[in-house]
Amino acid sequence: MATNIRKVKTTDLELKDRLVSIQRVTKVTKGGRTFSFSAIVVVGNENGIAGYGLGKAGEVTTAISKGVEDAKKNLIKVPILKGTIPHEQLAKFGGASVFLKPASSGTGVKAGGAMRAVLESVGVTDVLAKSKGSSNPHNLVKATFEALLELRDANTVAQHRGVDINKVFNG
Fold first, then answer.
1. What's the chain look like in SS3?
2. Residue 107 φ then ψ, to 5°
3. How would you write the pLDDT of the chain (171 residues) with one tens digit per residue?
4. How many CA atoms lie within 13 A of 141 on its CB side?
5. Strand 127-133 vs strand 109-110: parallel, antiparallel, or unpaired?
6. Predicted model pTM
7. Whole-angstrom Cα distance, residue 15 to residue 166?
8. Distance (Å, rounded) from C-alpha 20 to C-alpha 137?
9. CA 74 → CA 70, 102, 160, distances in Å?
C-alpha cells in the first residue's frame, strides 16, 4: 500500500512513549493455563517522528519495555504543517478504517483512544479524526500509521512531479 516509507534513525531523538493497550493473553497447555501480557506502545518526539511496537512478556512492565524497543525500530517521519496534517487522508488496515482531516488552529485533537495516542505522539495539535469499522487497538494504530505514511506536503509533491512549487498550487 504505502510505497513512500520514510524511515528515521533513532540517534539523538528524545522519544516519549504512550501505552495504547495492554491485554492479558492465555496459552492453554496440558498442564493448565499460562498467562502473559501483550502491550502495544506508540513512541514519538511530538515533532513529526513516531513509531509503534508490540511487546509480549510474562510481566506487564517487561511487555511495555519490549514494545518501546520494538517501536524505536519502526520510526517514520510525518509532514506537519502549522500543527495539522497537509490534507485529508483515508486508510484501512484489517477491519479498521480511519479518516484524518486537517483542522484550523485551536481545534485540538478530535480523535478517540488509539488514534489520539498516535496523533499526539507525532505532534499533531489540530486534527479531526474518525475511526470506522473495527475498534481493535492494534488495527487502529496500524491504520492510523498507514494514513500518516501516505501524507505528502507541497514540497514533496513538487519534487515528485518535477515542477516548481507554485505550479502545484496554481495548476
1. CCCCCCECCCCCCCCEEEEEEEEEEEEEECCEEEEEEEEEEEEECCCCEEEEEEEEECCHHHHHHHHHHHHHCCCEECCCECCECCCCEEEEECCEEEEEEECCCCCCEECCHHHHHHHHHHCCCCEEEEEEECCCHHHHHHHHHHHHHCCCCHHHHHHHHCCCHHHHHHC
2. -70, -40
3. 445 556 666 556 788 999 999 999 999 999 999 999 999 999 999 888 999 999 999 999 999 999 999 999 989 999 888 888 988 999 999 999 999 999 999 899 998 888 999 999 999 999 999 999 999 999 999 999 999 998 888 777 777 777 777 776 776
4. 26
5. parallel
6. 0.86
7. 35
8. 7
9. 7, 25, 24
